[in-house]
Amino acid sequence: MDNVLKIIMQRLALGLLTLLIVSVVIFVAVNMLPGDFAQAILGQGATEESVAAIRRDLGLDQPMITRYFDWLGGVVQGDFGASFASANAASFSGTTSGVKTVAQQIGPRFANTMFLAAVTAVIAVPLSVTLGILAALYRNSVFDRAANIFTLTSISSPEFFLAYVLILFLAVLNPIFPSLSNIYDGMAFSERLNKSMLPALVLTLVVTAHMMRMTRAAIINLLASPYIEMARLKGLSPMRVIVKHALPNALAPIINVVALNLAYLITGVVVVEVVFVYPGIGQLFVDSVKTRDIPVVQACCLIFAAAYILLNLTADIMSILSNPRLRHPK
User: Fold this and answer.
1) Contact 311, 263 (CB under 8 A)
2) Integer distance in angstroms from the first to the last C-alpha of the chain?
3) What does the alpha-carbon distance between residue 250 and residue 248 come to, in Å, rounded to a whole number?
4) DSSP calls for 164-179
5) Which of 8, 53, 94, 212 has its CA 20 to 30 A from that of 185?
6) Using an 8 Å Cβ cutoff, are 327 and 25 in contact?
7) DSSP conformation class of 148
8) Tens of pLDDT along 58-98?
9) Angle at Cα 45 formed by Cα 42 and Cα 49, nearest 5°?
10) Interacting residues of 105 by C-beta distance below 8 A, sequence separation 6+
11) Contact (CB, 8 A) for 303 and 281
């Protein structure tokens, strides 16, 4: 147990170091984006004095390293700063009550993205594992080949193409689901689920192939093992052999690929959210890049990175706990 705790603590420390390095990259990259927020809101005819005044009010006139440590100190305390766009809108109205913090803007959007990711995971994970088990059980059969062709076709197609195909068939020709996912706070769960179904189906098509093929490969690799042959000699059915004996020992690679695809459901939803006008963090990220709202862009990027690192760490730790050879390395 001490060895397991030591390995987990090492992984967590490595994750925090990785996140720190990523935060530096994010801050530098975002601040190197072309254009200037002050110039953008004042227009080309703005005087240098007015541009300098706005930059000074927003702290953009400070050295980059100073701004980075100020930003990092706020992030550690859960404060991502104030939205530039919100502060600008409030200044035109002559009040400060309308100024929204970045956390206030991101909170509802992140909850919407997590809801979409949860709906997709509920559909995609059982479907992928089931297809993988069946493909391994009937490998080289018509079902196996058809499943591989279908999943490879879906993963090879861009998300926006799959989105428009599903909109055509499930919203236009057969109006089963709405084409726009205009959800809002206070919406009934059934209506929210109905409006989120099309983007969830697109994401399901994208992530199913990876998980299905990894499940299939992991199980097939174990079917030649001596203990599997012994289970067959005992007269167990092929499905029982796979589910009871092969699947538990194939959990480590399956957990890894599931976690990686769950990370994609949070970090890779930008295109899908834009196509369906889904009010998630991906749509907010695109809108903030357009308006050069630097604090929001930085916060979105950091959340994407943190989610990806956290899910990878979770996969790593789960693999260690599910594999005795990793729990007790030589």
Assistant:
1) yes
2) 15
3) 5
4) HHHHIIIIISS-SS-S
5) 94
6) no
7) H
8) 777 788 888 888 888 888 888 887 777 766 554 444 444 55
9) 70
10) 83, 86, 284, 296
11) yes
